Description:
- This protein has helices at residues 2-6, 25-35, 56-61, 64-70, 107-116, 120-135, 154-157, 159-168, 188-200, 217-223, 232-235, 242-257, 270-279; strands spanning 10-14, 17-20, 42-43, 51-52, 74-82, 88-98, 104-105, 141-146, 175-179, 204-208, 227-230, 261-264, 283-285, 293-294.
- Helix 6 (120-135) runs parallel beside helix 8.
- The chain is built from 13 helices and 14 strands.
- Strand 5 (74-82) and strand 6 (88-98) form a beta hairpin.
- The longest helix is centred in the middle third of the chain and has 16 residues, at 120-135.
Amino acid sequence: MSYLxxxxxLVNSRDNIIVVREAAVAGLYDYFSDVMEVKSIYFKVxxxxxxxxxxxxxxLEFKWIDQVILKNNVTFHIQPIVTKSQExxxxxxxxxxQDDNGNSVxxxxxxxxxxxxxxxxxxxxxxxxxxVRNAAAIHKKxxxxxxxxxxxxxxxxxxxxxxxAIQLGIxxxxxxxxVVETESVDDIEHLKKILTFYRERGLHYALDDVGVxxxxxxxxxxxxxxxMKLDMKFVQGVSGDLTKQAAAKKFLSSxxxxxxxxxxxxxxxxxxxxxxxxVGYELFQGYLFGKPTPIPTDLAK
Length: 301
């Protein structure tokens, strides 16, 4: 304890709990491992749950995400969303990341690191703000992903997004906020608050990978999505798969019943596009129409 105090690493202590600065964590873990039974030691960061101390090394390994967030090391690629006639209707903004050396880092790795270090809110905010800034150069609708579980209070967390759109002169009708498929949404009431915030300001939103949490018409009617995306697992090969066809038709019926525009993503084969178009899907996305690419300068014209 005296070492922690003399090196200004101790925040406070009481009973069997000590609070230290992050700089002390690695050395403290080494000490605990050497002289104590680590199975009986737990840690927590801020308001997160208590976890076994052996998991703290993983937390330290993901510290690099702090610099990604601090330095806004995010750029965007776009992928077209097209109509039945293959005219570009919108673009989805897809975040791309780099480390301090300029090397690409997979988005899945970045979001995993943020979740491990409890930085999901900060990362989601950085991406959302950067996406809106980039949207100013694209005179089409843009789909912007967001993580609903990272948003504590829509009135406060999303205010900067709305203010930035106003500042940049971006019509709200140009922005479509998309609930990302990587997050399983358990708290439907919280999601409803977020979507209500968007809807009351004239912003549109999409549900991606509509699954168990949105499985009933009653829930979908409460959420009132403007767009619903059919996941690629039901899209790829649908023209020759009766099971996928049944799922695609059921999804289409649900979307139309709640007034949402049905969008099929992950299309790579023309046969699947033709089948989906024939049964009534209105919008389409996938490699068949274009891969994610850096934002061309001519889109700003």
